[in-house]
Design brief:
Layout (H helix, E strand, L loop, with lengths): L1 E3 L1 H6 L1 H9 L4 E5 L2 E6 L2 H34 L6 H13 L1
Parallel strand pairs: 1-2
Antiparallel strand pairs: 2-3
Length: 94
């Protein structure tokens, strides 16, 4: 990843955009602190896909936690969450 300053960006915007569209990545820094990243549209879409997968995974984990908590409330001395999920799945398969 190539590091550029806002001044470099202003001076060479066209060239930087051409290189970014070809796949090169640019980190824009001001006072040695990162402030932005310039990537190709394709890389941007891939980053969006990663965020969507992450969000779906976290949602699934939240649902599993809620299922375990509901199971504990229904049956305080009952099976552990893993066993409860297996029971739910076996009921769904029937």
């Amino acid at each position: 990843m190539r590091v550029v300053t806002p001044l470099d960006l202003r001076r060479s915007l066209g060239a930087i955009l051409d290189q970014a569209s070809a796949g090169e990545r640019f980190l824009v820094e001001r006072d040695h602190r990162p402030i932005a990243v310039i990537v190709s549209v394709e890389d941007g879409h891939r980053l969006d896909d990663v965020e969507e997968r992450r969000r779906r995974s976290l949602d699934a984990l939240d649902r599993l936690i809620a299922l375990g908590e509901a199971q504990r409330r229904r049956h305080p001395d009952g099976p552990a969450a893993v066993e409860a999920i297996r029971e739910e799945r076996s009921r769904d398969e029937r």
